[in-house]
Amino acid sequence: MSDERKTLEQRHQMSDLERLRHSAAHVLATAILRIWPEAQFAAGPPVETGFYYDVELPHRISPEDFEKIEAGMKAEVKANHVFERIPLTRTQALEMAQSGALGALGPRPEPSKFKLDIIQGIPEGEEITIYRNGDFTDLCAGPHVMRTGNIGAFKLTTVASAYYKGDEKNPQLQRIYGTAFKNKTEMEAYFTMLEEAKKRDHRKLGKELELFTFDDDVGPGLPLWLPNGTVLIEELEKLAKETEFAGGYDRVRTPHLARESLYITSGHLPYYAESMFPPMEMQEGDGVKDRYYLKAMNCPHHHKLFAAVPRSYRDLPLRLAEYGTCYRYEQSGELFGLMRVRSMQMNDAHIYCTEDQFESEFNAVNQMYLKYFNIFGIEKYLMRFSTHDPSRLGQKFVDEPELWKKTEDMVRGVLQRSGINFIEVPNEAAFYGPKIDVQVWSAIGREFTIATNQVDFAVPRRFGLVYKTRENTEATPLCIHRAPLGTHERFIGFLIEHYAGNFPLWLAPQQVRILPIGDEEPLIEYSQSILTELRNAGIRVTIDASSDKINGKVLRAEEQKVHTMLVIGRRDLDAGAVSLRVHGKGNLGAKPRAEVVADIITAAQTRRA
Ligand SMILES: [Zn+2]
Ligand SMILES: [Zn+2]
Fold first, then answer.
1. Which of 168, 241, 292, 311 has its CB 3.0 to 4.6 Å from that of 467, i.e. a possible disulfide?
2. Which of 93, 144, 110 is nearest to 36 (CA)?
C-alpha cells in the first residue's frame, strides 16, 4: 500500500526517477505553503506515474489553482536549493512538529499534526531525519535529488480526496497528484503516450467494436461478452489449448464454487476472505448447514484432482490446465473496465512435479511466454522475480530454508540461462514460494501486469498430496502455478490498446467481408462461392449485399475494422480475380482469387502478425 511507511530497504531501492518525483513533492508542498501557510501535510510518496502530496487545507484546491502552484514550484526549482539532510533526536523532532515547523516554512501557531503522528509511529531506534530545501523543512527519510534544480520538468495533473493513512475514520485530505521527469522531452513523450492511450482506451473501443458490455442488472464488474468479443476469447483459448497440448498438458474442468472446507484447507479462508464473494448458506437433507463460496482461484480444485487418483513418479510431471472462471470481490471503487473485474476467466494450469523435474518444467513455462510475446508482437517485457528474506522465515515466508534456497537458485538459473529479461526483488515472494510477475508494454509504451507464476512448496502438503517414488516411498510434489495469458479480461483489455482495435487477421472478429459492386445475379453468385470457400476453411466472412454504393460499403467495413475486404466488380468476375483491400493498408489492387483465398487461410492458420 502506498499509505504504508516505506521500509529502509525499499527506500534504498528507489529508482532515480522515483527520487526525482518524490523531491518534486517537497517542492509542491513549498509552493502550496507560500499561498496557504496553514496547510497541513501528511504523506508525499512517489507513485507509478509521478508523485502526490496529501494536504489538509480549508481552501478546496482545484485544477484552476494548478497554474499558480506550478509557478511557485518553478521558482523553487530555479532557485536550485540543496536538499539538506539533518538527523534529529526523537525529542527534537517532536518539538519541531509541536511548533508547527515540519512540512512548513517555519514555526506556526498550530502543530504539524500529521507529522507528529508519523513521528510517533517511527519504530524506536530508527534514525529520524528532516530535509530542508530553501526555507521548507519536512520530516522525511529521503532519498532526494541533490538540488531542486535537478527536477527537469514537472506538471500537476489531478486532485482527489484520500483519508489520512487510507482509513475512513481519519480526516479526509486533498491528494494533489503531479508527475516529473528528467527533462521536457521525456515529459512530452509521456503526455503524448497518454493522449494515444485515451484514443485506444479499451472501454471506448470495446463499445465501438461491440466487444463487451456491462449491465446494472447483471452487476458491476461482471463483463458480458458480445459476439465480437467472444471471437477474441475463443481464438485465445484455441491458441492456449494448442500450445498446452503440444506442451503435454491435460485439460480438466471444475465447478465455479466449493464448500467452505476446501478453502480452509487451502488457507484462502480466513486470510483471503475479503477478496471472496460472501458465502452462500444452505441446508441439505440432513439439516446440517453448509457454506459454499464462489471460487477465487482454481488451485484448490486442481489439487483435489491430483489427489483423486493414486499418483506415482511415472505420472509426473502432471500438468492440469483449465480456462477456469474465478470470482473476486473487488471494491466497487476499484472496478475499472476489463482491467479490474469481479468475474474472470484464467489461462490457468498447475504443474505437479518432482524437484528434479522442476528446472525443465519451469523453463518450458518461460519458453511458452516467449512464444506468446512473439505472436502478439510484444517487444518489451520484464519478469519480476520475487524472492524471500531469510530473516523472516516462519513469519512472512514458510519455514523451509533449504527449499527456498534450492528453488530460488533453480529459478534464477533458468532465467539467466534463457536470456530472459528479469529483475530480482527481495522480500516480495508469496508465503509458500518464489513468484514471478510478468510485465509487458503495449505498442504505445504503457505497462501492464499480465500474469504471475508461482512456485509452491507448501500448499501441496496442506492438501496431503503425495506420489509414490521409485523407491516406493511417499513424497510431496512441487507445484508450479502459471497463467501466461493471464485472464481473458485483462489480456483482451491489453490487446485492445496494443492493437488499437486493429487486430491481426487471425484474431479479428470480422476477418473478411465481400463487397460486390451492385447486385447483379452473377456478381452475387461469384461472391457467394468465395464466401463458401473461405467459410469451409474456418474463416469468419460475410457479404455486404445491401444496395448501398461501393464507397458506402467500404466505409462501413473500415469503421468496423473488418480486416480484409474483397471488392468484386464485373472485371474481377470475368478475370476470376478479387480487388483486395486491407484495413489500415488501403487498396492493394486486383489479384487472382485463388491466390488471395489461399493467403487469407495461411495468415489465419499461422497467426501471422
Ligand atoms: Zn522526502
Ligand atoms: Zn494456482
1. 311
2. 110
